[in-house]
Write a structure and sequence with these properties.
By secondary structure, the chain is of the alpha+beta class. It has one domain: Alpha/alpha barrel (Glycosyltransferase), CATH 1.50.10.10. Helix content is 43%, strand content 8%. The strands form two sheets. Strands 1-2-3-4 form a four-stranded antiparallel β-sheet. Strands 5-6 form a two-stranded antiparallel ribbon. Strand 5 and strand 6 form a beta hairpin. The longest helix is centred in the middle third of the chain and has 20 residues. The protein is globular.
């Protein structure tokens, strides 16, 4: 619900690509500032998508509703599109690696790649839904599963901030992630997602988006640049466009 990080990074990207720089600049400004509206607000509540003091942006925010869980895809796109400043992008990658290291120490993560969402939603959390017990357990699917598709964007984000050595390491981890097959024996499974705590592939095999983002990540590491996104980041949009509400 509300103004989502992921959807607004996509809107920003297409505004830049279509040379609507004024609207793109306004959108980026809104996404990067703290703006609380309404008569009754608690001190911790945030409008727009900034989550101080962390370097990342919130999953979504709208009036009194928000989630400050970390969305890997949205934040990777924020780096790739330049919504996150260079300093913030560097700090964001450092934060992800530190958090994932702590998760591995706690047994919450078995692979050298970040989950799509963390911290995981647990049964005692307010945003837990009854169906999650069967379909969305912690570390699985949308609740912190490790998605090759999303990790491809993270590898590219590491390249975008100049962390080529880290990007190579993550690409090797992604290679190991996409190899195992789950349903049909094959040299490359290109699975849909893997369970964070075990690395076991799940969902459906032979996902074209998993394969496509693996190839893109490999190209980024080889070229030491991020095709398409380089063009977006090199544009300095002018400063009216509201955030996009799903």
């Amino acid at each position: 619900m509300g103004y989502g990080l992921y959807v607004n990074t996509l809107v920003y990207a297409y505004l830049v690509l279509y040379s609507d720089h004024e609207a793109a600049g306004q959108l980026r400004e809104l996404m990067n500032r703290l703006e609380v509206r309404g008569e009754e607000k608690n001190p911790h509540e945030h409008q727009c998508l900034v989550v101080p003091p962390t370097p990342y942006s919130a999953l979504y925010s709208y009036k009194r509703l928000n989630s400050d869980r970390f969305d890997l895809l949205g934040n990777s796109l924020a780096i790739l599109t330049g919504i996150a400043s260079p300093d913030r992008a560097q700090n964001l990658v450092d934060w992800v690696e530190a958090e994932c290291g702590a998760m591995r120490q706690r047994g919450e993560l078995a692979v050298d790649l970040p989950p799509c969402l963390f911290p995981y939603i647990l049964p005692h959390h307010a945003d837990w839904r009854q169906r999650y017990e069967r379909f969305n357990r912690p570390g699985e699917y949308h609740n912190g599963g490790v998605w090759p598709f999303v990790c491809g964007f993270y590898v590219a984000a590491c390249v975008a901030v100049g962390r080529i050595g880290l990007a190579r390491r993550k690409l090797l981890a992604l290679t190991e992630l996409v190899k195992p097959w789950h349903e049909n024996q094959a040299e490359w499974g290109f699975n849909e997602w893997s369970k964070a705590q075990t690395g076991q592939p799940s969902g459906r095999d032979w996902q074209t988006w998993s394969a496509a983002m693996y190839l893109y990540a490999a190209e980024c590491v080889q070229q030491q640049r991020t095709p398409l996104f380089d063009d977006i980041r090199n544009v300095e949009p002018r400063l009216l466009l509201p955030l996009v509400k799903k």
